[in-house]
Amino acid sequence: MTQQLVPPTNALALAGFILGCVAVGGGFLLPGWALPLFVCVPGLLAIIFGFVGVNTANRLGGLRKRLAVWSVVLGFSPVPVFVLSRFLLAVVFGV
Q1: Closest CA relative to residue 77, chosen from 52, 48, 55, 44
Q2: pTM for this entry
Q3: Over the stretch 70-94, which tens digit does the pLDDT of each residue have?
């Protein structure tokens, strides 16, 4: 019987990146009442998954480390993006 080798993966880096993209997109597109649920929660999960993904990447020789770092960056950025988008709405449209 032959044993198949499974290649190492860093799924948390990918999950964190996707959640970070959702959080940043939500900061631009969603109204203010949706900030806690659709922006802060995915952003917090992106930060957690990103740090775990960086740790996993270090153990696996750098596998998807850039993706994990970007998930941390995107996880931290939704609130400034939300504030900037609301400021631009106020300046451009007088809302």
Answers
A1: 44
A2: 0.80
A3: 999 999 988 787 778 778 888 998 8
